[in-house]
Amino acid sequence: MKYLKNHSRLALGYFLIAALLGLILRSFYVLEIPITFKFVVHAHSHIALLGWVYIALTTIIYKLYLEKLQLQKKYNYIFWFTQLTLVGMLCSFPFQGYALFSIVFSTLFLIASYSFFIFFKKHISSENKEQNSYYCINTALWYVVISSIGPWALGGIMTTLGATSIWYRLAIYFYLHFQYNGWMILALIGILLYILEEQNIQVSKAVFKRFFYSINIGIIATFFLSTLFTKPPIILYILGGIGAIFQLYSLFLIINSLKQNSEKISALFSSFQFSLLKTVCFFLLLKMILQLLTALPYFANLAVTILDFTIGYLHWTFLGVVTICLFLFLDYFRMIKIPKKAYYIYLSGFLLTEALIFYKGFIIWQSLPLLHTYFKLLALASLLIVIAILYIFATSFFIKNKK
């Protein structure tokens, strides 16, 4: 258990680095910083998704399903190889963007993720395979593999069609879509179901079957929403909208099941953890509503033409839904203690930055003048997120040393 706590701290360390890179990006218009903006954006996004979210999720998955099987040595080979790829990306992306070394390390990361997938499939017990939670985790890991088609396609697209081709953007959107809608969301739901199953709080097979098919139909169909910047035939708008409706329906099924067992669940979690769960459900509902709106041509055009709306939506998903849910699970499994004060500082920074990002999108949409202190306020709000993560990170080591 001790080494898994250290792995969780390492994931949090990547989150701190990603937040610092985000702060640098948001200070770019306030201070003179000798960086190439686009290069730092690449580093920020890769370390946030692959350092923080991927490492935190795979560490939790290993703990739940494989820790008791005495596989630490084999797991460590995969884990530390993954760290090599992440450090390589961190040392190359900020200085060269997509170039030889960053592409090599990104490719090696894909191989590392395949290794974890095979490792999981090889050693998972037959008993676990009967659980609803396993179906979610297994499918989530399949989405890791499916999403990697995007990065593999980029090399050929850049060689033949160039980075200005719509296929270049489609490959990136394919990867991102199946990462945050498929891998991350479904893995988090699977972990929640595992916790409930361990306490004999079951979602009925009939309800789970409807949920499972609905969310997967939704995940696949909503990819078409990522293609709307090409102004495709109306059928793709319809398919994307149907997918968004299926995802909302699947969320309704899960939330309804949680409500039916609300007393048992509230007793299972601490009051703080239960409030995190309710916050995540609310944020996820808003995320899916926003996604449904983009099936309408008018709002699809807004999302395409006003980058701030897209950035706000992505940050809502990663910093709101995914990160707060990870805070909940890391705290629940006692892998990292999440102090309440640190969380509320984080939540304040997150909500302020989201309000400011969507405000700028609204200003551009309505052709209004931007507040002259906007970029300073955005940088200060981003600083709150850095402070909160640093608080959590420092506290985790303080508790360790105290013990």
UniProtKB/TrEMBL annotation:
Membrane spanning stretches: 12-31, 43-65, 77-95, 101-120, 141-168, 180-196, 208-228, 234-255, 276-299, 311-330, 342-365, 377-399
Keyword Glycoprotein in annotation: no
Coiled coil: none
Keyword field: Membrane, Transmembrane, Transmembrane helix
Name recorded for this polypeptide: Cytochrome C and Quinol oxidase polypeptide I
Lineage: Bacteria, Pseudomonadati, Bacteroidota, Flavobacteriia, Flavobacteriales
